[in-house]
TrEMBL record:
The lineage of its organism: Bacteria, Pseudomonadati, Pseudomonadota, Gammaproteobacteria, Pseudomonadales. This is Capsule polysaccharide biosynthesis protein.
């Protein structure tokens, strides 16, 4: 088979190791590279030249629906004041690459604009696009998502026992097990070769790409500094207006844990609700008398924390921002309902028998204990069920079934970039990940 890989900064280093395994198994490799700083070392590489000013134009190479689909998930447009005038140029280059290489499967992420454009072209041509990604649970495993969706491809056959599944459900309920992405990277990790994210050396590497012409995923240093400064100031304002939770008899609480942005989890998979300030306002307005919305900042908060959000948190009578240092464990037991778009907290809630509303796609969608409403107008009806004691939560067998599903839709191995998680580069991990991808690719080709 012929596999195409899409460059994505440091993730390319991991894909390069996976590609080496594919080659050892007799497969051929081709690459599409947008940022030459992160070019791979194996396979046939096509580096898209950076466009000149005369090559920038209004986009006409995609249907309106697909154009808006890409634009709505483009972090450079959403957070750094970019535009789409480079789309037409890159669409032409991507089409040239696909026509020339004719890959059987394309592998990448659904985060950067050139990946999103490639996804649309692959979808139109019927070429499978794999997005391997690690969900929060069960840990040490990854899913293969189709295109820019959360639809998992393939099924794992290494299923644990029911006893193990129940023990894991209990560990998650007791918060003895947390998602791996919540564990911060270690600067002095003995396996570390590449610079820590946001470190000085990492910034130098990214700056070098910017100076060479990468202006479509990378903001200018000044704009990046201004954006980061605003986040810092807004977090300071958040902390000043935040209040500790003091349970009051007869008062009920809804928790909305904010999701970090930019991130594919919300900006792509949950893009209909990517404006979290608007969503928080709609949730608060839908709450009946006696209910308050607690808003928790993401521990890795970024550009979702803007001045409009702070104004809402400070002015809405039914909204209460909790202190930045409050953990999920501090607040979870005090709330009667949790609302999320695509957060891992939905899985935690179902396994903890805590009512949860999920607006976006996810593994617990339409399962017992999770409601997927059409709009925020449905929240009041759901709350009435909770108040009447009629909201159904998962029993132990259903909790075990969910954990089994988490294993069934994931494969052993870790997928990340080596700057964030150096251990992904171990030979054992690369072999696990690569072999599972090959298995799913073969299934897709036969299907």
């Amino acid at each position: 088979m012929k596999f195409g890989f899409i460059e994505n900064r440091y993730k390319t280093i991991f894909w390069n190791a996976v590609a080496e395994y594919f080659i050892s198994e007799g497969h051929s490799i081709c690459w599409l590279v947008q940022n030459p700083i992160f070019s791979p070392t194996v396979g046939n590489t096509f580096v898209i030249p950076f466009p000149g000013k005369k090559q920038l134009s209004e986009c006409g190479g995609l249907s309106l629906e697909n154009f808006e689909n890409v634009k709505s998930g483009d972090r450079y447009i959403n957070y750094f004041g970019g535009n789409d005038r480079h789309y037409q140029y890159y669409i032409s280059e991507i089409r040239y690459w696909l026509d020339r290489e004719k890959p059987d499967v394309v592998i990448g992420e659904s985060t950067l604009f050139h990946e999103l454009l490639t996804i649309e072209e692959c979808r139109a041509r019927g070429i499978p696009f794999f997005h391997p990604s690690m969900p929060g649970y069960p840990g040490g495993r990854y899913s293969i998502y189709a295109y820019d969706s959360k639809e998992p491809l393939g099924e794992s056959d290494d299923m644990p026992s029911d006893e193990f599944c129940f023990a894991l459900a209990e560990a998650i309920r007791k918060r003895e097990r947390i998602p791996e992405y919540m564990i911060p990277p270690i600067d002095k990790d003995p396996e570390r070769i590449y610079p820590l994210p946001n470190s000085f050396m990492n910034r130098i590497t990214v700056l070098w790409g910017y100076l060479r012409g990468e202006r479509f995923n990378t903001p200018s240093p000044l704009r990046k500094w201004i954006c980061d400064r605003k986040v810092k100031n807004n977090l300071y304002r958040w902390q000043r207006i935040s209040k500790d939770i003091v349970p009051i008899p007869g008062k009920n609480y809804v928790l909305y844990p904010m999701q970090m942005q930019p991130e594919a989890n919300l900006d792509v998979w949950g893009k209909a609700y990517r404006d979290q300030t608007e969503l928080i306002s709609e949730i608060a307005n839908s709450l009946p008398h006696g209910w308050t919305l607690l808003v928790k900042a993401n521990p890795k908060a970024k550009y979702e924390i803007d001045s409009n959000l702070i104004e809402l948190l400070n002015s809405h009578p039914k909204v209460l921002p909790i202190p930045l240092n409050s953990s999920m464990a501090d607040v979870f037991e005090h709330v009667d309902l949790v609302i999320t778009v695509t957060g891992t907290v939905a899985t935690e809630c179902v396994l903890s028998k805590k009512p949860v509303i999920q607006f976006g796609p996810g593994i617990v969608q339409n399962r017992v204990g999770c409601v997927n409403p059409v709009t925020t107008n449905d929240i009041d009806t759901i709350i009435q069920l909770i108040e009447a004691g009629e909201f159904s939560t998962a029993n132990d067998s259903e909790r075990v079934e969910l954990v089994r599903l988490l294993y069934q839709t994931t494969f052993s191995g870790k997928v990340s970039d080596p700057a964030t998680l150096p251990s992904v580069m171990s030979k054992d991990n690369v072999t696990k990940v690569a072999s599972s991808i090959l298995k799913v690719a073969a299934q897709q080709q036969c299907g």
